[in-house]
Amino acid sequence: MARMSAQERRGELIEAALRVIAREGMHGATVRTIVAEAGVPLATFHYVFASRDEMIGEAYAYIAVLPEDDLAEVLPADASPEDAVRALLLLWFGRFLEHPEYELAIMEIMAYCSRTPQLAQLPAEVQERYLEVVVAGVELLRERFGAVGGPSARDVATLFLHTTDGITYCWLRTRDTAASHRAIDAAVPVLAAAVVGA
């Protein structure tokens, strides 16, 4: 079996930590519990992370690295603005449903960071990373549809994130996937109008 690099091992431990945090909360995410979840020796953790807090900070950043898709591959060439927004929201929602436990972990980590002085800046930094990714997507859509005027790309991206956050939290409370799809359908005209500046 090929030996894992330190970076690969960090990713393995971070994913184990996210599973533990989602299942047991931050109080249950001890270093020993995380290495047991990952199936690695305790020494491995201390080889790749200086501390539990360093790992927690990286776990928060890890989940904020969104997959980058080529819009030309995701969207049909003849997609309308509403088609494009619906396709992107459904792509996001499908990925969310693959690992909803990660969102539970993020809520736990965000609360922990907010109460931990050396990590208190992380929630704002992670939000900024999300915004950068979504702003880039909005700008690509505007270029594709020849949109001019309307709210800034950053304001539209913020509206997208508020929408997805709301759908996320409602789904985690109710597990009602059909209701989430209805919410997406209701949001599409508003977001599409914001994208094209209508």
Topology, pairings included?
Layout: H1 6-24, H2 31-38, H3 42-48, H4 52-63, H5 71-74, H6 81-98, H7 100-114, H8 122-145, H9 153-174, H10 177-196
* Largest sheet descriptor: none
Helix content: over 70%
Number of domains: 2
Contiguous helical run count:
10
Report, as a whole number of angstroms, the end-to-end distance.
56 Å
CATH architectural category of the largest domain? Orthogonal Bundle
Which runs of at least 5 residues are low in confidence (pLDDT < 50)?
none
The sequence of SSEs as H and E is HHHHHHHHHH
Radius of gyration: 19 Å
Please report which band the strand proportion falls in: under 5%, 5-15%, 15-25%, 25-35%, 35-45% or over 45%: under 5%
**Mean pLDDT across every amino acid position:** 88
CATH topology of the largest domain: Tetracycline Repressor, domain 2
- What structural class do you assign from the helix and strand content? mainly alpha
Report on this model:
With 198 residues, this protein is mainly alpha-helical. The chain has two domains: 6-61, Homeodomain-like (Arc Repressor Mutant, subunit A, Orthogonal Bundle); 68-196, Tetracycline Repressor, domain 2, CATH 1.10.357. The protein has helices at 6-24, 31-38, 42-48, 52-63, 71-74, 81-98, 100-114, 122-145, 153-174, 177-196. Helix 1 (6-24) crosses helix 7. The longest helix has 24 residues, at 122-145. It starts with 5 loop residues before the first helix and ends with a helix.
